[in-house]
Specification:
Elements: E1 5-6, H1 11-31, H2 39-61, H3 66-92, H4 100-107, H5 117-130, H6 162-170, H7 173-190, H8 193-196, H9 201-226, H10 231-257, E2 272-273, H11 277-284, E3 287-288, H12 293-298, H13 305-310, H14 319-332, E4 339-340, H15 343-359
Parallel strand pairs: 1-2, 3-4
Helix pairs in contact: 1-14, 2-3, 3-4, 3-10, 6-10, 6-15, 7-9, 9-10, 10-15
Length: 362
């Protein structure tokens, strides 16, 4: 994989990057705060784990009819998405705690989705956060099959009505990770990425296979063996849980990058993006619904994506406080700060963007 460089001789851009870091760092110094998680994050984590684990345990100890069982799988999906957004996301970014073992412990909650932590760190922390919205590098906007998320990806007839059918396929996000992890890790091994981070490719693959088998045996095998539900009802519940989680996660992630005003630049022939990296993040990312306190809490601050991309090692519990600092600094330097005022406006913008991406000329 060819490396892309962010190169800017614009002193104005360089000054912005320096100023925004200084202003945010000063906030934490003046308040005497750690940039990592706090009691609020611990409470969020507890609530999301309860939403996921308690319904699952209830299947084994409480008489439950089929309809109630399916409703419980929806609750598990809501909890599962919450774990991914509030807990795993911070932990894998090493912002959950100052203690690395704590970050590793709660980063491991990704295994509750059946996904692989190593793959996530490469795909999300490195590729997505470094090469945000760059086709061929940012796998979070990788266009596959019936969905086209990048204006630089090939346009096909099936994309014409993607603004309608995309939401069904969004629900398959976490399910696809169960399978995609295999080909993804093969790719990382082949590219030498695994060894570059001092991991043994063979061991990582064996570990991934074993953990996925354990996950499937617990989440599907146990209910089939130890509850009164039929095997197909268990499978259906499993699919409902994952579809619920996948839909929530996909919508939240896409409303941060695939909306109006979020650019999708490409490097020049020399592999150079002619912008300061911090400015690139402003150009390719969007905030939304910053004043919606419940949404802020449930989605783990992922509606503050500008702040998250500029400061990925700061826990999301601080984003609401530092967002005005980032916005003010951006405007002082004359840069656009892409903010959608509400969830509905962000979702509407995403739908319009999907429609445009499905209909623009080749």
């Amino acid at each position: 994989m060819k490396t892309i460089k962010f190169v800017s001789t614009d002193k104005h851009q360089q000054a912005f990057a320096k100023a925004v870091r200084k202003n945010v760092n000063n906030y934490f110094k003046e308040k005497g705060l750690s940039t990592k998680g706090n009691l609020e994050l611990a409470i969020q984590t507890s609530v999301m784990l309860i939403l996921y684990i308690v319904p699952f345990v209830a299947f084994f100890f409480v008489p439950i009819n089929v309809l109630t069982g399916f409703l419980l799988t929806v609750i598990m999906g809501i909890g599962l998405a919450g774990i991914g957004m509030c807990t795993m996301h911070d932990a894998v970014h090493h912002s959950f705690s100052n203690k690395e073992w704590v970050n590793k412990l709660f980063g491991g909650t990704l295994y509750l989705i059946g996904a692989n932590v190593f793959n996530w760190e490469i795909q999300h922390n490195i590729l997505h956060h470094t090469y945000t919205n760059i086709e061929g590098y940012d796998q979070d906007i990788e266009s596959r099959g019936p969905i086209r998320l990048s204006e630089n990806a090939p346009l096909r007839k099936i994309h014409r009505y993607q603004y309608i059918h995309a939401f069904f396929f969004y629900g398959l996000m976490t399910l696809s990770k169960l399978v995609k992890d295999f080909t993804q890790l093969v790719f990382y091994n082949k590219e030498g990425i695994t060894r570059r981070f001092n991991f043994n490719p063979t061991f990582e693959y064996i570990k991934m296979v074993v953990l996925k088998l354990i996950y499937l045996f617990v989440i599907i095998g146990f209910p089939i063996l130890f509850t009164n539900f039929r095997w197909w009802q268990v499978i259906l519940g499993f699919l409902i849980m994952h579809w619920t989680a996948g839909l929530i996660l996909s919508i939240i992630f896409q409303m941060a990058h695939v909306v109006e005003g979020a650019e999708e630049p490409m490097p020049d022939v020399d592999g150079v993006i002619n912008n300061e990296w911090a400015v690139h993040q402003l150009h390719t990312t969007s905030d939304f619904a910053r004043n919606n306190h419940f949404l802020n809490w449930y989605v783990g601050g992922l509606n503050f994506q500008i702040e998250h991309h500029l400061f990925p090692n700061i826990s999301h519990v601080h984003y609401q406080k530092i967002a005005p600092i980032v916005e003010k600094t951006a405007k002082e330097f004359g840069f656009n700060y892409n903010l959608k005022p509400s969830f509905v406006s962000a979702l509407s913008s995403h739908i319009r963007r999907l429609r445009m991406l499905g209909q623009q000329p080749v």
